[in-house]
Design brief:
Strand content: 25-35%
Number of domains: 2
Shape: elongated
Order of helices and strands: HEEEEEEHEEHEEH
Length: 282
């Protein structure tokens, strides 16, 4: 074979090998896994309900490459003994803001945000939607009764909206959502309120009858409500209502008498005299 041809073929083969190796390196760098740092963080080993105090058996670890979620817990010891503020699911990274402060414990108290209060409201089985209230729902609080010092008002018993768009923290002893959505009969509902609202609600619980009204959680508008009196339900005016007992004053059906006014002058003195007509006297 011609030596010149062999030289050309050998050179072409070497160039092809070099190009192939270069392309292989480029493709490997592009398609290969990026060289990010892997971080091991704490995650939930099972589904964990709100209010649960974490134990070692509830926790596991997972590896995350790249950026670590803000507030992620790196050591299991930093999570053990802290209460869960919202439901956690299997394999979900546990973040610091999803847990109560160290030492706060679990249960209802750990779920109360700073500056808020949990106010217990006693209800019966048939008042409003008491049997259907579950944690996380939003309700309005209505009060009914007679205003102070007006036990016999023309309006009768009155109802007013005391609080609106209030979150239900717990129903009875249950602070979990019912997975099946079944209603449960409860005697006490804990509402998440501010300190001034807690004062008003506590006073209303002792002095009036309370009713809870469900509302759409997406509806956050505060409605202006004037209140309703018993008289208005029966179509009577809100002003003074005529007495219904037989002891009221009867109106005289006879027309008012005609009166004549006469001025009398006696020297410098002036006086007036009133006289009824003859027909009225008869």
């Amino acid at each position: 074979m011609n030596r010149r041809l062999m030289t050309i073929l050998s050179t072409a083969f070497m160039v092809a090998m070099a190009c192939s190796y270069l392309v292989f390196r480029i493709v490997r760098d592009r398609l290969g896994a990026p060289n990010h740092q892997v971080t091991r963080i704490v995650a939930a080993a099972r589904d964990i309900k709100l209010g649960t105090v974490l134990a070692a058996a509830d926790l596991t670890t997972i590896d995350i490459s790249g950026a670590v979620p803000e507030g992620a817990i790196l050591k299991a010891s930093d999570a053990i003994g802290r209460g869960v503020l919202s439901d956690l699911f299997l394999g979900e990274p546990i973040l610091n803001n999803r847990l109560a402060a160290p030492g706060a414990g679990g249960g209802l108290a750990a779920t109360i945000p700073n500056g808020m209060r949990a106010c217990a409201v006693k209800v019966d089985d048939v008042v409003g939607v008491a049997g259907f209230v579950t944690p996380g729902m939003r309700v309005d609080v209505l009060i009914s009764g007679n205003p102070p010092g007006t036990t016999n008002t023309a309006q009768g018993s009155q109802v007013r909206t005391l609080l609106q768009n209030i979150q239900v923290l717990s129903a009875g002893t249950d602070i979990q959502r019912d997975a099946e959505g079944k209603p449960q009969r409860v005697q006490v509902v804990n509402l998440l309120v501010t300190p001034p609202q807690a004062e008003a609600l506590s006073l209303a619980s002792n002095q009036t009858k309370i009713q809870l009204v469900l509302r759409n959680p997406l509806d956050t508008k505060i409605a202006e409500t004037p209140g309703t009196g018993l008289a208005r339900l029966y179509g009577e005016p809100s002003a003074t209502v005529a007495p219904r007992s037989g002891h009221g004053v009867r109106k005289d059906p006879r027309p008012a008498p005609h009166v004549y006014l006469i001025e009398v002058f006696n020297g410098s003195k002036r006086s007036e005299a009133k006289f009824a007509s003859r027909e009225d006297k008869q």
